[in-house]
Specification:
Helix 1 (6-24) packs antiparallel against helix 2 (28-44) and helix 4 packs across helix 6. The protein has a four-stranded mixed β-sheet with strand order 2-1-3-4. It has two domains: 2-48; 51-143, Glutaredoxin (3-Layer(aba) Sandwich), CATH 3.40.30.10. The protein has six helices and four strands, in the order αααβαβαββα. With 145 residues, the chain is an alpha+beta fold.
């Protein structure tokens, strides 16, 4: 759990110290913009931007029942963030598994990627796809309504 919050915490602390430096040098108005940029980066890289993660066995059970894709991800992954943003509201229909919180999910990703924890790894109909095009994932979602 704490590993997922390291990057966002560092970003907020860097932004706060940068803004404090600007304020102490007599530029309080210019401190707001960099602080907002750092806070935005922290939010985007935090687990808050993703729908709630579930365990790998639960995700696989639900996927077998409803046919929706399972996405294995981790906080701080730019490719996972790209997928999440490009899916838009459709991201809520995907089963998300945070591999940093779920050892079974990390094991499933390693099994699909020759021992590497490469994310996002998407499982559709029992087949794994490593870092697929977001448009392809959206297409898979539209087929499984």
């Amino acid at each position: 759990m704490t590993r997922a919050w390291i990057l966002p915490t560092v970003l907020v602390l860097c932004g706060a110290s940068f803004a404090a430096g600007l304020i102490s040098s007599g530029n309080p108005g210019t401190a707001v913009a960099p602080l907002l940029v750092f806070v935005t980066l922290a939010v985007v890289n935090s687990p808050l931007i993703f729908p709630r993660s579930i365990s790998a066995p639960e995700a696989q059970r639900r996927s077998a029942a409803d046919g929706r894709p399972v996405v294995f991800w981790r906080p701080g992954c730019a490719f996972c963030l790209r997928l999440r943003i490009r899916l838009g509201r459709g991201a809520r229909r995907v089963h998300w598994v945070n591999i940093w919180r779920d050892p079974a999910g990390a094991a499933a990703v390693r099994a699909a990627n020759d021992g590497n924890e490469t994310v996002p790894t998407v499982i559709v109909a029992g087949r794994s796809h490593t870092n697929p095009d977001p448009a392809w994932v959206r297409e898979q979602l539209s087929r499984r309504r």
